[in-house]
């Protein structure tokens, strides 16, 4: 009888601890994004593996517009926690397409988000970032917001107390997970066509007011770093930053605008030495800190996750 009472009391303590929000250590036992240490790490001081044109996957080497070889679920299994994609209309439905939907159509954005939502439901201790581009200046309220709403992703989206948020002001991964808002969505252009205007869908954040990127579509395998795309009012040192570590090859001599993702050199490009050298080359613009996002083609090749772990101190 005495043992039963003690057991009942212990269960009551556990229940009340959960109600009072004191169950944090238990929930974090398995770590945040795979590491217990990251639970106390601010989002703005964490490095995430990113997939460039994540939707453009194909196992067919003749699919010249591809940038990935494995699908979204397998990218996530490999450790990708930042997904980049480009939105275009296909018969008045928002799709992810590479330059145009006739070149490579990755399907409806809503379906894509449902795939990621399934992963997040099955992995409650993971923080995810989307960096989407809106080259056609599509209306956010009409096209982007409904895709998030219908996919069930909207309740998971983190909305800062103020925008733009400085790099040092972001909450920890553990705090985001505990709040239930553990997905960050950036968009490069807003509803009126101006870069990074605050969209009407307030959970979609203006990328270049909060994130700077270095040169994209690089054909230089040494990846020299510079602040290439950013917007005020924040200085680059107060922003998150992304290194575009995806190498392109010029396929038609004297026509520099025609580039393809360089699959042949992907093992070297995605190697530890190349990634860390690129990250180190950007430190003069980050007050010596590691990049927040390492964006790769062919995430299944090379040592992308190992490099990200090293940048995170593991």
Automatic annotation (TrEMBL):
The keyword Signal applies. Keywords: Signal. Pfam families: PI-PLC_X (PF26146). Residues 1-21 form the signal peptide. InterPro entries: PI-PLC_domain, PLC-like_Pdiesterase_TIM-brl. One of its GO terms (biological process) is lipid metabolic process. Gene3D superfamilies: Phosphatidylinositol (PI) phosphodiesterase. PANTHER family: PLC-LIKE PHOSPHODIESTERASE, PTHR13593. This is PLC-like phosphodiesterase.
